[in-house]
From TrEMBL, chains A, B, C, D:
SUPFAM superfamilies named among the record's database cross-references: Homeodomain-like (SSF46689), Tetracyclin repressor-like, C-terminal domain (SSF48498)
Record's protein name: TetR/AcrR family transcriptional regulator
Keywords: DNA-binding, Transcription, Transcription regulation
Highest taxon, organism lineage: Bacteria
Length: 223, 223, 223, 223
DNA sequence: AATGAATGAGCTTTCATTCAT
DNA sequence: TATGAATGAAAGCTCATTCAT
């Protein structure tokens, strides 16, 4: 469902005893998929184990509790795509306009297609039950994510590409729709009849960036 | 899985409907609050009853099961704010620009402040476990919501206020950040340390609408 | 097995809903019997419930955990027989010899026949797993129990009935065998073939007290 | 329940007995310590292995099950101190008084200090769960132990050292406090605050034997 | 109509035991 | 022989639901 190579490995050793190193991430992948699909509380520990191809008890060889598994899932998944795309933006030295039209849509489409997209739903759903997720998420995702976008916008303003806008608010204008599309993908979007409901998310992302870019650009008359 | 339009089915039997209308809306309010805060699965039926000030057994006098309570909560809450704001937009006959700068922000702030804002989180969180919510939500919220925004945008284009843009995509640009802010309010935003994380949502909404409006307006140069 | 009226009550209301007040002590009685027979760890919570005539879940209506049930059993059972017999000794004002030949054997036979006899085994068995039992037991049983016996012996010495002996040690000489007989009753003594192993405990108690009494008395030659 | 003399049955097949003798007595020592401390049921097989310095699987190379390990522990530990002390008493040919004042206290202090002292607790605790322990214990410990003490007392009576007392009961008077002190050592006595609770067990044993000896001796007036 | 004691299916977690290495 | 990853039966505990009052 959420992709990742949960099952694709090792059809040659069908029974007991596989590799201890691979187990944790197989379990994490299975857990991410199920926690995102059904919610943490509605997912049984045994389901996670089954989807990872192991028995119930094996799960507890690697994680002390279901809750610790959740925390590990979040920690594990956050590390990947977000920081990675951020890196690309930091290394970019072209015009801000160019970054908005080329870098951002590419990065966000990757996020949308990756398992990280599921994480947004997971965090939104579970923070209130596990408040220490909030701090971790804020520090690892929200702050650095917004910071890099705000820096980009500020650069555009400094270079004269953009009007002097409320940079903080504008960053939200850019980011929030993509997160919302990720959430949608893993909720209503995953239900049968809602397929035609939202048009191709790629089209929406690119269109959105164009629209905001135009709103930002300096050479239009002010409101 | 089971039925498809379970949520709507009861409006087909208006006989006992009266009794259901009379059902303590305290229970529905309590359920909305708790389901949103902790998730459906993690909320105990007794908690709902307690918060509503009645005993556990009383809940089952009005709802046959916890699941039926969830459906009732969604049905009950959707009826209010969404349809109401839609009405206001339909009755509006001024310029599209005016609608975007005055009507929309006002309505959305009302939604943001109302219990309806919680509903977005609830639906996002629970659709995959209760697929018939999807149909109901799509028909009652997504479709009419997008339709009215798209109509507004189309009107703006027809009147020459806006450039000819991808109306469907632009509607998402307008709507998604708003919904995302509602979700945020009930998840990360409700956690202690994340207060300063996101600036005042009202400022973000107004700023966002201004930005998109500029992007839509005809008198700027095309990309 | 260990007696007490666990089942003897209420054959008129065979199904649900009995008296809330009676439940806890029915459960405590059942728990004492089973914990003593099989040990705390080897006793399943459901067994306790079954023997008390209720369902598994009902147990948890009255005790938060199996461990808390254990503590409650100990607290509840200690209160009765020990303190009671102690009272009798304190109120006795005849000769120490008389107390040893009449009061003590009567009291100890009562303890031996009562459910309290089981408690010795339970405490011996479980203190090391639940160290706070130790403090409670020391303060409620060991200290007051030894104190009253030592006072009795001291009185005998002061009155010239007994030789001046090591009062503390002599108290142990008196008390330890009876406790040991209680332990035996609930361990080896409860097994089929061991019935003839230990002669009638009453005979042993009375004989033991006679023997020690003679050893204490002043008019024999010193060693 | 199942067999009756399971514990003894293996001494009937002396073929593989050699192998069992060779089994790491570290495992048996570790098991005795842990079973005594926490009880059989509350001790995990892996703990035993760990304390013996081997891996979990190794334990099962030597013992087919945790239960068989328990039986082996009891068999192994009984062989040593009890039979040994018995031997010394049988070989003693001085006066009964001398035996009581010199032989017995020495032997019992050895038992008290040896791992055998733990065995009393183990048997008391577990007989009811493993009834065939009872037969083994009765035949190997209780009967020979009481027999030798009773013979000693009878000898004392025959020689005119002791009054003609109830030999069976008097044997219990001598033995029970000693066993009780062993139990105490491994239960309440092992807990922090109970150290001062019971005075030095050596003093109690010696004092007890003196007291009983005086009660037995012929030259005091009858009751 | 309202209550809350009682129930038992169901879930999390543990641990004796196995077996591939 | 020794290991320890894997298993799954079994135990503790929860909670949706019922029903006598």
């Amino acid at each position: 469902m959420t992709g990742q190579s949960v099952i694709m490995s090792e059809s040659a050793t069908p029974h007991r005893q596989r590799r201890k190193e691979a187990r944790p991430s197989e379990l994490l992948d299975a857990a991410l998929a199920l926690f995102t699909e059904k919610g943490f509380s509605a997912t049984r520990a045994e389901e996670v184990a089954q989807r990872a191809g192991v028995a119930k008890g094996t799960l507890y060889l690697y994680f002390n509790s279901k809750e610790e598994l959740l925390k590990a899932v979040i920690r594990h998944t956050l590390s990947s795509a977000v920081a990675d795309g951020r890196q690309r933006l930091l290394e970019h030295h072209g015009s801000a306009t160019e970054a908005l039209t080329e870098l951002l849509p590419t990065w966000w489409e990757e996020v949308y297609d990756s398992p990280s997209s599921a994480l947004f739903k997971l965090v939104i759903t579970e923070v209130r039950n596990f408040p220490d997720i909030a701090e971790f998420y804020a520090q690892e995702v929200i702050q650095p994510g917004l910071a890099v976008i705000q820096a980009l916008l500020q650069r555009g303003i400094d270079r004269g590409e953009f009007r002097p806008v409320d940079v903080e608010a504008a960053a939200h204008s850019l980011v929030l729709p993509i997160i919302m599309l990720c959430l949608h993908k893993h909720s209503v979007g995953a239900c049968a009849l809602a397929e035609a409901m939202v048009a191709d998310p790629r089209r929406i992302i690119r269109s959105h960036l164009q629209l905001v870019l135009r709103g930002l650009q300096a050479h239009s008359s002010s409101s």
